[in-house]
Write a structure and sequence with these properties.
heterodimer; A: 198 residues; Cytochrome Bc1 Complex, Chain D, domain 2; two-stranded antiparallel sheet; 6 helices; B: mainly alpha; 16 helices; 0% strand; globular; binds protoporphyrin IX containing FE; binds fe (ii) ion
Chain lengths: 198, 464
């Protein structure tokens, strides 16, 4: 073994890389199982028919989503297939309007606007937007906001109107509801706690 | 000069021009933070930011391709194979960038359908360009790979650097295929998206710039091939040995299993090691040659690359790579601080070093120095360090007030954004950004004029 010899390091580079790639491949196969809709960390799309909460779990020592009993979205019970189609549409709205270049999803994207990971659970819907839009439910307030964010601003930095039609806004709301049920290992921490303690 | 080197110069000109567009778009994006009603509904923040980060990726790619087209014929002592095709594709590449820009300015976004993804905007960070344009990039990169491989085969000669380069271009190209899917599930979407972003900047690009810097060191300091190749292998071993599983630092919070917290935290915490190695290497080489060089600006930009890569990527990355901290720093201006320092240090400075190497050869001087480049160097680096300092302060305030205390709701977000520390950081970023922009102007001026009045020399060029 001669560490002055480039050949020694060449062999080191090749073998290290190969080992790491194998480990990554194994972990990826495992992770993809867990993060498919219906995997251990990511709920099925029809979770939108249920109530979703977010609470501190003392055994895991982090905040985790809590899936409760039935709570219909837009007063409708979605089948798995319908829910899937709705999510497909929601994702296409999100990509086509480049929401991610202002907002973050799971903390990824741009930092000009709030993180949307738990937007479904944001106390602002009850406290600000339901009164402002005179909507009866959270989801109706969300739809109204998403269709006309420029009409219902809460502060100087407004969201522009991205011309979502009603079905598109509903698909996004469903998407955000599903996202809030994903187990994100405790991110964001203490979501909404300051408000709910008051 | 070889035809390949003439093509390289064209790529450099395009890269520098796009670098300018990137700065203008960056300054504009920064301005929205201070004046949120700016161009509201006409050209919103997201479009300005898309311009900023997409031109970033393109100018660096063009800089890398230019660097390889520059050094490859020199390395093998022959013209690049299939160069005519590369010459045509250069214009195709530029035309595609222009068309996408027009669409981004005037159309901006489309409806929720596949048509939008193919022709308007894909809305995935860094790879927003519509699919047709992404196909174009694949074609350009494949031609580039073909040029490199075919030239090696025709020359019947391989060097250590070329082996690393060729093997690196394979995953680099394959990863770009990640620019196409539009998966419904955000967790799987982000899982693959990070392969592209992380495995590019912390894997394949890092190896690519290692090859380019190896050539650069031999060029400006006459470092021996044996030394640069040994270091290159060590770097590859450490970069990929830590960076491949370091990917896990992006898998903390996207819905992925909990084991990523430890795997990602551990391996990414080791990622600064190879970057420290590069600093040691650069200092060692500079010392061994008593700081003697035939190209001062290139030499200093190479040193800036080594230090910038280590501090910006290594240290600023390390600061927030442990999950205990990342839980709060994730997705804040803290990330932006690191992103700027790392991209600038690792890749921006490296490409500029190559620009000066090309400059020297074109102006035919055997010693390149002057006054203007120092101003460019000083203003750009001072501006950048000021910007990342401002962003770091803003980011720490945001991590604290929005994430840790506030709990990341809309209200918490606003509290963070209106915090005086945060606001000062945004003003600082703007001010230092303008200094950075002034440095760019000097850089361009210097690149266009340096060496003009220096003595001509007949040495060094052995072009056919
Ligand atoms: C005049 C100088 C510049 C200004 C004012 C500027 C401004 C900005 C702004 C406002 C953002 C958006 C951040 C957000 O989402 O809130 C951004 C993102 C970004 N910029 Fe710059 N920028 C400048 C120069 C540069 C340079 C020189 C580079 C790299 C070489 C760079 C690389 C990036 C990257 C990688 C991002 C995405 C970072 C992330 O999302 O974490 N920028 N920049
Ligand atoms: C040249 C090398 C590097 C470049 C160009 C770079 C660039 C970036 C950019 C642009 C981002 C923001 C990505 C986004 O969300 O859009 C980022 C994120 C990150 N980087 Fe790096 N990086 C480099 C190396 C490193 C290293 C060596 C480390 C660790 C030691 C590191 C740790 C991180 C972490 C933890 C994040 C996630 C930030 C968050 O949670 O928001 N990076 N990097
Ligand atoms: Fe990374």
């Amino acid at each position: 073994m001669d560490i002055q010899d480039p050949g020694f390091w060449r062999a080191g580079a090749i073998s290290t890389t190969a080992v790491m790639l194998v480990v990554l491949a194994i972990l990826t196969i495992d992770s993809l199982q867990d993060i498919r809709a219906g995997g251990s960390h990511v709920p099925k799309y029809d979770v939108i028919n249920q109530q979703i909460g977010y609470q501190y779990d003392w055994t895991r020592r982090m905040d985790v989503p809590v899936i409760g009993g039935q709570q219909l979205l837009f007063g409708k019970l979605y089948t798995e297939a319908e829910a899937h189609a709705l999510m497909r549409k929601g994702k296409l709205v999100i990509q086509s309007r480049a929401c991610m270049d202002c907002h973050t999803f799971f903390g990824n994207g741009a930092y000009y606007a709030p993180d949307l990971t738990k937007a479904w659970l944001d106390p602002a819907w009850q406290q600000i937007w339901m009164p402002m839009t005179a909507a009866k439910t959270r989801e109706d307030a969300m739809v109204m906001f998403l269709m006309h964010p420029d009409r219902y601003p809460t502060w100087g930095r407004e969201m522009p109107n991205l011309h979502l039609d009603e079905s598109e806004a509903q698909a996004v709301v469903a998407y955000l509801k599903w996202m809030s049920a994903v187990d994100t290992n405790g991110f964001p921490a203490n979501f909404g706690q300051t408000q709910s303690q008051q | 000069m070889y035809r390949s080197q003439k093509l390289a110069v064209r790529y450099f000109v395009a890269a520098v021009a796009l670098f300018g567009v990137m700065i203008i778009a960056g300054l504009l994006s920064a301005l929205y933070y201070l004046h949120p009603s700016l161009l509201f509904d006409v050209f919103n923040f997201n479009m300005a930011k898309i311009f900023h980060i997409d031109t970033l990726v393109i100018w660096l790619l063009m800089g890398f391709m230019g660097a390889v087209y520059w050094f490859l014929p020199q390395e093998l002592g022959r013209e690049v194979e299939g160069i005519w095709l590369a010459e045509i594709l250069f214009y195709v590449f530029c035309a595609a960038v222009a068309v996408v820009s027009v669409v981004f300015i005037f159309v901006q976004y489309g409806g929720s359908n596949e048509f939008s993804l193919w022709f308007i905007n894909q809305g995935r960070k860094y790879v927003e360009a519509p699919r047709w344009a992404a196909v174009g990039i694949v074609v350009v990169v494949l031609t580039f790979v073909y040029n490199v491989v075919a030239t090696c085969i025709k020359a019947r000669r391989m060097t250590g650097i070329l082996w690393v380069l060729v093997l690196d271009l394979i995953p680099l190209t394959l990863l770009y295929l990640d620019a196409f899917p539009a998966l419904t599930n955000m967790s799987t979407d982000l899982y693959w998206w990070w392969w592209l972003v992380h495995m590019w900047v912390e894997g394949t690009w890092e190896v690519l710039i290692g090859c380019i810097m190896a050539w650069a060191l031999m060029d400006v300091m006459g470092t021996s091939r044996r030394i640069v190749e040994t270091w290159l292998y060590i770097e590859v071993m450490l970069v990929l040995g830590t960076g491949i599983l370091g990917l896990g630092h992006h898998y903390f919070w996207i819905g992925t299993p909990q084991y990523w917290l430890s795997i990602g935290g551990f391996f990414s915490a080791l990622e600064p090691l190879p970057l420290l190695g590069m600093v040691v290497h650069a200092i060692y080489d500079a010392g061994a040659h008593h700081m003697k060089t035939n190209n001062r600006p290139a030499f200093y930009w190479i040193l800036a690359e080594a230090f910038g890569n280590f501090i910006g990527a290594g240290m600023f990355g390390f600061m927030m790579t442990l999950p205990q901290i990342n839980l709060f720093s994730h997705g804040t201006q803290w990330t932006v601080s690191h992103g700027h320092f790392a991209f600038w240090g690792a890749y921006g400075c490296g490409v500029i070093a190559i620009l000066y190497i090309a400059k020297q050869k074109i102006s035919g001087v055997n010693f390149l120095d002057g006054r203007a480049w120092k101003w460019g160097f000083g203003l750009l680096n001072f501006g950048l360090i000021g910007m990342v300092g401002g962003l770091l302060i803003a980011g720490i305030a945001q991590a604290f007030y929005e994430r840790a205390i506030g709990g990341s709701t809309l209200m918490a977000f606003m509290a963070g954004q209106e915090n005086p520390w945060f606001v000062s950081g945004m003003y600082a970023r703007m001010g230092f950004g303008l200094i950075f922009a002034a440095g760019y102007v000097v850089l361009v001026y210097d690149l266009l004029s340096a060496g003009k009045h220096a003595p001509k020399s007949a040495v060094k060029t052995q072009a056919p």
